[in-house]
Backbone:
């Protein structure tokens, strides 16, 4: 249902989940139906168009589906999750961002 989907033990999962051996907590049929019925991104609330890429957003550790999001929000969420998981990166990111902020934001 997505370009990044792989067949893993008879299930359709994203490449990251397949590499970790995580199976989705939703059937392929339900995933297709859920994406088909979604009219807007669950995060930014922009309406999907015929050319929009709908992503079945899920927890890569458990396979639990959280919602249907646009490709942009899915990408940003992936980066955010990485920084949250790797606390040292999060700390470095905050230090870096504070360098360019005005005094009222520090």
Residues:
């Amino acid at each position: 249902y997505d370009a990044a989907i792989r067949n893993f033990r008879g299930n359709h999962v994203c490449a990251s989940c397949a590499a970790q051996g995580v199976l989705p907590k939703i059937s392929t049929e339900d995933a297709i139906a859920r994406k088909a019925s979604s009219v807007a991104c669950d995060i930014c609330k922009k309406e999907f168009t015929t050319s929009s890429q709908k992503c079945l957003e899920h927890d890569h550790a458990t396979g639990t589906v959280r919602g249907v999001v646009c490709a942009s929000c899915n990408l940003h969420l992936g980066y955010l999750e990485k920084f949250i998981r790797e606390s040292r990166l999060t700390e470095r990111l905050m230090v870096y961002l504070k360098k360019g902020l005005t005094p009222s934001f520090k």
Notes: The radius of gyration is 17 Å. The mean pLDDT is 79. The beta strands are 5-8, 11-14, 54-58, 65-70. Helices lie at 15-20, 28-37, 71-85, 87-99.
